[in-house]
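Hi all, long-time lurker, first post. I run a small reading group and we've been trying to get comfortable going from sequence to structure in the token notation. Rather than ask abstract questions, I figured I'd post a concrete chain and ask someone more experienced to write out its structure so we can walk through it together at our next meeting. Sequence below, copied exactly:
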Amino acid sequence: MILFRPYPVLSVLTVMALALLLALGGWQLDRRAWKIDLLAEHAAITDAPAAPLDAVCDGPSAGQPIAGAQPDAARMVRVFGRSTGGAPGWRLFAPAPLPDCAEAGFILVEAGFAPLSAATAATEAATAPGVRAARDGLRLETPLRRGVFGAVDTPDRGEFYAFDATSMEAALGLEPGALLTGWWLAVDDGRPPAWLAATPPERHFAYALTWYLMALALAGVWLALNIARGRIGWRRR
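-- Answer (accepted) --
Happy to help. Here is the structure in token form:
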């Protein structure tokens, strides 16, 4: 006859662990679907024709192409980052006036890139001093926020590692509250923003598969242990 007397406490703990692992796998699949939708929305937005700068007054969307910004070449701050080619350096931002409908007077516009070293300068288009002329190819992005272990800014030199409206306004000689805080205009390199591309949908699927395989392995260990201890199996009459 069939013998089925698994260890009760071990079985309860195993079921709880299985439920957690399966939930984590399902959560990653949900994240994958969510990320696919976001990438599709971003692609639709970035493929649209460039909108005038007035678009910042009408509920703008991340990635929306914008034309018509006129950055002030006489004022500029540097934000640490990477070029479209991946080289480390300073992203150059200059303030551009906003239309009267906006909630602030100026928006930061990415106007160039200054590599950190002479080696990368040979392959990157460094624009300091001065800024690149305003042109199409800019898109709305959420300004870079400071991480937990972010480096310390040096506002007196106009060098920043994250968006800081108050310090940047002082460095640019703007009045307090003059900078738009929710958006800046970044160079459109044709790729989704880093926060969206950092974990692509394929990776979420891999994570989900990992959780499911861990659940399968746990069930196998539970079964093998109970069989080895004679708690599950066949017993002859």
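A couple of things your group might point at:
Residues 129 and 161 are 20 Å apart (CA to CA).
The mean pLDDT is 87.
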